[in-house]
Specification:
Length: 219
């Protein structure tokens, strides 16, 4: 098993009381020198590389990973399900590399901390068996292609269908969400004026895929 993924599995659940997200906003030397953070195996593993080269990609990986772990430990944790998952991947090296290796790769490609928070929520849903591994891969790919600014519009569409004729300024965002499969098209009953002018009234509504995605990241 790759040491990085192994240390990641050991760091998913931690007993550190300090909010790890606060550490992700500090300079990289704070990670290296802080004795509290060194309790996390993943920190020691990554900083061992940083001490040599202080590579910008490894810096980003460390910050994004701490953000991910902080969110994973946010709120009440179902320790039984988490421990079952950790035990499962420790017994299956291929599964560990496939799953945690994929998560680490995504984290290192993230620029926005918000995406690492959302990825953690999606991964926790997988660990809790609320979604399958294939669904995790699909949702993580959607998250990768999603713009953070689009999330407010997605939330708006979820609460109330958006009329595309009245929201032309958001059309490019609407089309992007549509291309990701998160929203669909609904047709409104035509009014007399619509029939007279030959207008087809359509609005956007959250798709079944989008609703499941929203349930994970918003609820």
């Amino acid at each position: 098993m790759d040491k990085l993924t192994e240390d990641f599995s050991k760091s998913l659940v931690n007993n550190i009381k300090e909010p790890l997200m606060d550490y992700s906003e500090l300079g990289i030397d704070a990670f290296i020198n802080d004795g509290v953070l060194k309790e996390l195996p993943i920190v020691s593993s990554i900083t061992s590389v940083l001490k040599i080269g202080k590579n910008i990609y490894d810096r980003n990986l460390l910050k994004q990973t701490l953000t991910f772990i902080n969110e994973f430990n946010n709120g009440e944790i179902n320790e039984k399900l988490v421990n079952e998952y950790i035990e499962k991947i420790r017994k299956d090296e291929k599964k560990c590399e496939e799953e945690l290796g994929r998560v680490l790769t995504i984290l290192n490609n993230n620029i926005d901390r918000e995406k690492s928070i959302l990825l953690s929520k999606i991964f926790k849903s997988y660990v809790y068996s609320k979604i399958s591994w294939n669904e995790f891969c699909e949702f993580s790919e959607i998250l990768n292609r999603l713009f953070i600014q689009d999330l407010m519009l997605l939330k708006k569409v979820r609460i109330e269908n958006v009329d595309i004729l009245k929201n032309r300024d958001d059309n490019f965002r609407i089309e992007r969400l549509y291309s990701l499969g998160l929203i669909g098209i609904a047709f409104k009953p035509p009014t007399y004026r619509d029939l007279k002018e030959g207008t087809i009234n359509t609005c956007r509504t959250v798709s079944s895929l989008g609703e499941k995605f929203c349930n994970i990241i918003f609820d």
